[in-house]
Write a structure and sequence with these properties.
Length: 248
């Protein structure tokens, strides 16, 4: 038993080291690691926000539609709580696996750019209404870095996930893009990637663009498309998400 646990630990370490190494090479921000509201707000004590996202998904040969209701409450600038609740709208209609997270952030301001470091534990609440809607992850720990100037934006995030089948996964989320300014407001256009590595040798890579726009200080919108370009041991997935958010 001790030998088996040691092998599992070594596999997880190699998996994480591989993901961290790739993240440093690719130097890109978070994708699925993104927290409400669209990875942007609120950053002030007592602030909160809610976003509603519709997703068209093709996963392993099956088409489905999902609604995602996600929220955030910021106790202090450095700590907040987020909740993500997925709901399947067709086929086996019902609740997916909710995710709770506690992002801890450290912001910085430099000459010409600003950004933040993030450490976040995650819990995947096992209350999905059907086996097909259930996620395999149990808990996770992610770390991220993001920075932006007036024109450019980028960063990276890496995480380790423990699954219900005792396997471990390492995930790298990256993005790089440009900030957009016009019509009295602003937004950004990013190219995102998501690399997943499992300690049984499975791997997946998904890429695609993200367009975010701040319509006002209160209302925000985002469109995300992701396309699988590598799937070994994972199901190929293609998805289009459109969402709107409100911040107070």
């Amino acid at each position: 038993m001790a030998k088996s646990n040691g092998n599992r630990s070594n596999k997880m370490s190699r998996c994480l080291a591989y993901a961290v190494g790739l993240s440093l090479c690719l130097g890109a921000s978070s994708a699925d690691a993104e927290q409400p509201v669209f990875g942007e707000m609120p950053r002030w004590a007592g602030g909160w926000g809610v976003q509603a996202v519709h997703e068209l998904r093709h996963d392993g040969g099956e088409d489905s539609q999902w609604a995602h209701v996600e929220g955030v409450y910021t106790w202090q600038r450095w700590i907040r709580m987020t909740a993500k609740v997925p709901i399947r709208l067709d086929g086996e209609v019902g609740l997916g696996t909710p995710t709770l997270a506690l992002p801890i952030k450290r912001y910085f301001n430099l000459d010409g750019r600003s950004g933040s470091w993030t450490l976040s534990p995650h819990w995947f609440v096992p209350i999905a209404s059907s086996a097909r809607s259930k996620r395999k992850e149990q808990v996770a720990l992610t770390a991220g870095y993001e920075t932006e100037s007036y024109r450019a934006i980028g960063g990276l995030a890496v995480g380790v996930f423990r699954r219900v089948d005792d396997l471990f996964e390492a995930h790298l989320h990256g993005a790089a893009g440009v900030n957009l300014h016009g019509f009295g407001s602003s937004g950004h256009l990013k190219f995102k990637m998501h690399l997943g590595l499992r300690d049984d040798g499975a791997q997946t890579l998904r890429i695609g663009p993200t367009l975010y726009w701040r319509f006002s200080d209160r209302w925000h919108g985002q469109i995300v498309y992701k396309h699988t370009v590598l799937a070994e041991g994972y199901s190929p997935r293609y998805s289009l998400r459109t969402g709107v958010a409100v911040v107070y």
